[in-house]
Amino acid sequence: MKHKIAPVISMFACFVLYQTNIYASEFRVFGHNATAMGGTGVASSQGTLALYYNPAAVAIKGPVPRITGSIGVLWRDTGIAERLDSLADKDWNSVQMNPTAIAAEADSIKTEILAIEDSDGAMFDVGGQLAVQFGIGPAGSMAVGAFSDVQAGVAPIIDRTRINISLPSDPNSIANNETKIVFKGIALTEVPLGYAQKISFAGHQLNVGGAVKFMSATTFDGSINIEDVGDSGNLDNKLSRMDMEDNNFGVDLGVLYIAPADLLSAGLVVKNINSPSFDTVEGNTIDENMQLRAGVEAALLKRKLRASFDLDLTENETVIQGYNSRFAGIGVALAPTKGISLQGGVSKNLSETDPGIIYSLGVGLGFGVIHVNVAAMMSSKMGQFDDNSFPAEARVLLALESTF
Residue 359 belongs to a domain with what CATH number? Predict the structure, then answer.
């Protein structure tokens, strides 16, 4: 059982990635600006990424047509990695045969089980997008794209009843403990078609936009007993029976106000108004519930210096069972020259204590019509695994943009 938890999470994540081309309920992060600027984007995204963050901003044409693509990877540990690593090292076979014969080991397992919290879990996320924006008339603009994301979550269901250090004949003996690891995931591809119209009045501008999106998903839902973690053959067999394909559609709406001279903008987006859901093999559903997020942006020096703030107005579920998401983020961007941009930001999940404050940085370089951007996020809290420390949450992203 030694050090089997990392392979479990990795195997599940790889299985999800293998089963589908490449997307559960929290507000995802796409693109380098959002990644580097604390996850903000409702009032600050332009071009093709506006199709995800706020379709009203699609009306901010800039140079069109515009093509963007990005891919990012996220790891999040809300406290489970160290606990499961320790439990996987225990002599479960001997404890199940006769806990009283190795009472110290049985008591150690009991201690670890009782220390696990309901919100503990881990998540692996891979996301990417490819989109094209083009103008329609003097006041309208359209965009079409594909936003794909894989989220694979691992969380425990803790049996706190069967923990007696007694013979297996006792129904509540730790030998009969039924602590499980729950796997939940969704690989979702959204193909949105968005349109936005701008309305100008006395130097002010109001953009109104929407997007209708086809959503193709493969869901993953299942569990294994914790003592089965080390049985790779049994684990692979169970994982292969956890997936199910389903399709649906979603609707997003957004508004964006832009003050005179483009000094201030404020936006509001409602995503997944119809709350589309996707069935799982266990008879459950993974719901893409309606999300509401607001954002503001201030710009100075002809947009060479920008500051943005986003706030989730709804609390959103995640693929980590019992762990919710409601983020607030602040970001700053500086573009000293046409070909160089620097970004930074901080964000915090207001619904949970983990993973603490998340810091982000990014840099962009332009080479003519091609722009290359890299961004990263890292939490202030650290996780523990195999006696090593690592950020409880981290994300890296690479993005390319081309304008013509």
Answer: 2.40.160
Contacts of 252 (CB under 8 A, 6+ apart): 55, 192, 194, 210, 211, 213, 269, 270, 271, 272, 273
Q: How many C-alpha atoms does 262 have within 13 Å on its Cβ side? A: 10
Rounding to the nearest 10 degrees, give the CA dihedral for residues 380, 9, 120, 310: 50
Question: What's the total number of domains in the chain?
Answer: 1
- Contact between residue 44 and residue 32 where contact means Cβ atoms under 8 Å apart: no
Q: What is the pTM of this model?
A: 0.80
Tokens of 49: 């990424």
Radius of gyration of the chain (CA): 23
Query: Measured between alpha carbons, how far is residue 92 from residues 86, 87, 88, 95, 182 in Å?
Result: 12, 9, 8, 5, 19
Q: How far is CA 105 from CA 172, 329, 353, in A?
A: 17, 45, 31
The verdict on whether omega for the bond into residue 7 sits within 30 degrees of 0, i.e. cis, is: no
Helix (H) or strand (E) holding 243, with range, is strand 243-258
Digit-coded pLDDT (tens) for 122-151? 888 888 877 676 655 555 688 888 888 888
Closest Cα to residue 399, out of 30, 5, 9? Answer: 30
State the residue range of the domain holding 60.
5-403
Helices (H), 125-268: 232-239
By percentage, how much of the chain surpasses pLDDT 70?
Answer: 86
